[in-house]
Write a structure and sequence with these properties.
By secondary structure, the protein is an alpha/beta fold. Helices cover about 35% and strands about 20% of the residues. It is globular, with a radius of gyration of 19 Å.
């Protein structure tokens, strides 16, 4: 899924270093207001190489929320988002193979949403926030659901309309052209970690949902084994685009403050968990990374690298299943409803 900004005492986390984050460079925790934080990592954009700047990932000493500090300014953060920061369907063989692969692994997300809707009396539309090219919504539409997407990228919304045949608009959820209580579900896959104010989007979703509607959110899991293994090289950190790194408890607290109660938690995503591990190991094989870095390669080399990446993802699957079974998966997905 895509989210591109517009231009102008719970689970265990990573073992921190003993170095204090320089006070002059660390803002007070936006969640609890505490001034003290400890430095976990210093990292740069290892994934897409949009910058050589170094950024700090710190943990609040009071609430233990992990965050980027200082955060890029709102009018500058868009610089770190490459163009086409979402899946772009192509006409070549490698692109067609990736789209088939994505259709397969996205069924996991589709089943999660279908189960949520089956337990709800809501009959409105399904709104996907950060819809990217709209493939997920297309799969839902093929199953008979009424769908609409929203994305900050005009190009992504255009692909959703033209390639996948789903309605999508460009803009912010807080200004979505939809009436209150019109949605049976609002989905946010890998969105909250990008936002300056995640609570604003959750409150907007609360307004848009029907009384028995469902909110589905997914974020990288900062209490995962993968973060412990890879540290600053973990794909889920995605410095500097991820401003927050949530543990499950952090996300539950945020949802509670915004008027939601969690009804289901899942620690495994077929699309994301093994792929996150594979990209942490070999970012140069990831098709999205190669495309965004504009790596020159022959069609034959592109097919071989894509095949090698898919094979690596398959090899990572047993570990991803094991960590998820131990409630330490690379992502956490939650279904929530309005408090009753």
């Amino acid at each position: 899924m895509s989210f591109v900004p517009a231009p102008p005492p719970g689970e265990s986390g990573p073992a921190p270093t003993t170095v204090e984050a320089p006070p002059a460079e660390v803002e007070c925790c936006p969640a609890c207001g505490a001034a003290e934080a400890r430095l976990l990592f210093t990292a740069t954009d290892r994934l897409f190489r949009t910058t050589d700047e170094l950024f700090q990932v710190v943990e609040c000493r009071s609430c233990r929320l992990i965050r980027l500090a200082p955060r890029p300014r709102p009018n500058q953060v868009w610089r770190y988002y490459p163009r086409e920061y979402w899946f772009v369907p192509g006409a070549d063989v490698a692109s067609r193979l990736m789209e088939l692969y994505r259709r397969l692994v996205l069924r996991d997300h589709v089943r999660f949403v279908e189960r949520a809707l089956a337990c709800s009396d809501a009959k409105g539309i399904v709104l996907d926030v950060g819809c990217g090219g709209g493939l997920f919504l297309r799969l839902l539409k093929e199953r008979g659901y009424r769908v609409v997407g929203i994305d900050f990228s005009l190009a992504a919304a255009g692909v959703a309309w033209e390639h996948n045949g789903v309605p999508a608009f460009c803009g912010s959820l807080s200004q979505a052209p939809l009436p209150a209580a019109s949605c049976s579900a609002v989905t946010m896959f890998h969105v909250l970690e990008h936002l300056y104010d995640p609570a604003e989007y959750l409150r907007a979703a609360h307004t848009l949902l029907e009384a028995d509607g469902r909110l589905i959110v997914q974020v990288p899991n900062a209490a995962s084994w993968q973060l412990l293994l890879f540290g600053e090289h973990w794909r889920g950190l995605e410095v500097p685009r991820h401003l927050w790194n949530f543990r499950p408890r952090d996300l539950e607290i945020l949802l509670d403050r915004c008027g939601f109660e969690v009804v289901r938690v899942k620690h495994f995503s077929l699309r994301d968990n093994p792929a996150c591990l594979a990209t942490s190991l070999a970012p140069g094989l990831d098709p999205m990374v190669r495309r965004i870095r504009r790596i020159e390669e022959s069609p034959h080399a592109a097919i071989l690298k894509t095949a090698a990446y898919v094979a690596l993802v398959a090899a990572c699957l047993p570990f991803a299943l094991l960590e998820a079974a131990c409630r330490a998966g690379g992502t956490v997905m939650m279904e929530a409803r309005k408090k009753r």
